[in-house]
Amino acid sequence: MNKHAAIVRAEPEPQVRSTPARFTAAEFMRMAEAGAFDDMKIELVDGELERMNPPMSNHSWYQSEVFAALLPIAHVAGLFALAETGLRVSESTIRACDVALVRTRPDTNRLCSAPDIVLAVEIAETTLARDMGPKRTDYARIGIAQYWVVDSARSVVHVFGEPIDGDYAQVRTIRFGEPLDVPGTDGTITID
Fold this sequence. Notes:
alpha+beta, 6-stranded mixed sheet, 10 strands, tt1808, chain A, two-stranded antiparallel ribbon, 4 helices
């Protein structure tokens, strides 16, 4: 004979709200030192991991051109040019800039801080909105005196100076081929 099937009503599971994991700069650095990000480019922004776009050929070209142009000028002025360097913005934000001029040679595996930096440069191939927005205000907030965004789509360099209250008071646009005054030096470079 057939038995009656009992219908069991399952109670809906309570909605669990997920919260993003938040990390401190110290935790981020421990993860990086342990190799957690070896196969990717990551920044820590307001405690959250932000994956960066892989650099494309045009990005690499301009990064190399800017670095190579700054290197001899930095040397004469007693400064150091760095490529792909980490900057501590706060206890919950670590940014990576494409090129930097710094006052002291890094002698340990540490992040640069604002007093070290004379110039930070970003190459904006696919990151123009980020570089002109949140990165600009982060760099201004920590007092980086001069910040350049190389915008190859428009063949210009956006030059930001005089950080005041979390933004830059001085904004200029220099066309490719025109001289750029290198802060902290008597030199100029041109980008083509």
